[in-house]
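Standup notes
- DV: blocked on the single-chain target, sequence here:
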Amino acid sequence: MASGDHPTIAVTVGEPAGIGPELLAMLAVRHRERAFPARLVFVGDRELLAARAARVGLHPVYTDYDRAAFAHAGAVEIWHQPLAAPATPGHPDPTNAHALLELLANAADACATGAFEALVTAPVQKSTLLDAGIPFTGHTEFLAERTHTPRVVMMLVGGTAASPLRVALVTTHLPLREVPAAVTRDAVAATIAIVAAELDAMFGLPTPRIAVCGLNPHAGEGGHLGREDIEAILPAIEAARAGGLAVDGPVPADTIFVPELAQRYDAIVAMYHDQGLPALKAASFGRGINVTLGLPFIRTSVDHGTALDLAADPAKAATADPGSLTAALELAIALAARAAARS
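- DV (later): unblocked, structure below
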């Protein structure tokens, strides 16, 4: 833990041509004026962060990161990760793809070895990484591979303090045509187990209530609209119940997200990305938080993309909403504090 028993949190800059650098500058100004209970380390190109802050009229206090020397309260440290080429706001350059990947790898390795208590990631432009020949499908998958974790779970958190909404996914960034084959009994069972374990460990919910969506309309309509709900999802749910977990389903996805039903559960497990996340984002966009469950460290992120259109226009960039990144940072701090209290 950092000075004053505050956790050290790494925040990555994300796509250098996107809105990430401006959002980080807004966080840094907020930290100077009303400090977060954490030591903040931004992971990115020093010149990029300074220039993009100045571009939108912000003047954060940045200093170089030194693990052994805690900066003064209100300062944000920068762990310099140089770009390969200057970044033009709004125009991603595949030339920087490998530098961005190295940045993410360094941040993940530092978290895995204990230098940071949590990792918060600004969004990346997946298409630019793919254009550079890097088979990148998302932070979630990259961090799982980097840490040699066999299965992780993407979960978005939103709603309100009184009525939180947590949506976890069995599959993540897959083409829709590949989803049915990936929804196996083992995949569903492993997802339920990870969600239950992490709701206890990370969120302090030792007996979570979990609802599991069906894959097909009406959860398969008794097998008339597909067999996956009967042959893969239901056996996984029954196994989870036999293991002592409070799990319901398969429930039709067009029903479970009705607020009166959703609030009965601590988490809802959806089968694929666009089954679960539209409901979460409709309820919480701009305040939602992406949490990766199952990693050896805490990782949170935003619920939005790189906003290249905003980044391209200095006036629009200056009015970008840092709400989701702020929420992701605050949750990372809270989860790190809870983890420290348990240890």
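- Follow-up: The two ends are 12 Å apart (CA to CA).
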